[in-house]
Specification:
204 residues; mainly alpha; 0% strand
Length: 204
């Protein structure tokens, strides 16, 4: 997949999830129903594109141990978030109303390790990787200093108020558009280098 698509699709789908989440809560409760399922599917799609984006950010950062470790942590975080959102969708299908869904959530989160891995620690790795990778690119001067600032804003805004998630996603889109341009320039440069690289003469 073209990584530039991922850099656009990830924040756009995150924005979509944030908007649907707000609309879903207008009646005073969120889920179950079409909005609940659609919003969660949108964010699962965003996570798939984030995986591609992390892979490309690792490449842009040089693929060293630090970048590889951060990307790997990000993949683990993505996996736990996909598990979390899949659980949400399944419980939504199994519930007649919001109260019934709450009972099922309590049962799932009571399973040893689920709360800690799927809902608490695991997802944090996703955010750590996101900030760490773009910060490494800023230190290497591959991106402007404001780029990690916007990524941090995207991460922190929903923690302050989840209904501000679309605003955070807008910040992320601006920063990821910059990364998309860097990715394109890097790949064009790599392509030119391969074209002009002289062939190794055969041994006589």
């Amino acid at each position: 997949m073209n990584p530039r698509i991922a850099f656009v699709a990830a924040p756009v789908l995150t924005f979509t999830y944030g908007v649907i989440r707000i609309l879903d809560g207008l009646d005073g409760s969120r889920g179950p129903g079409l909005a609940w399922t659609t919003g969660h599917l949108a964010f699962i799609g965003a996570l798939a594109f984030f995986a591609v984006a992390f892979h490309e950010m690792r490449r842009l950062a040089g693929g060293g141990r630090s970048a590889t470790g951060l990307a790997s942590a990000g993949y683990v975080g993505i996996a736990t978030l996909i598990a979390q959102f899949t659980i949400d969708i399944v419980l939504g299908f199994r519930s007649a109303d919001h109260a019934a869904m709450g009972v099922l959530f309590d049962q799932v989160q009571a399973v040893p390790g689920v709360q800690q891995v799927i809902y608490d620690f695991g997802p944090l790795l996703f955010f750590v990787a996101q900030i760490g990778l773009v910060l490494q690119l800023a230190i290497q001067r591959r991106v402007k200093a404001w780029t990690p600032v916007l990524v941090v804003a995207d991460v922190l805004v929903p923690f302050a108020e989840k209904d501000l998630m679309p605003l955070g996603a807008a910040f992320l889109l601006i920063s990821f558009l910059a990364l998309a341009r860097v990715s394109r320039a890097s790949r064009l440069a790599d392509g030119r280098h391969r074209v002009v690289e002289p062939a190794v003469p055969a041994s006589v």
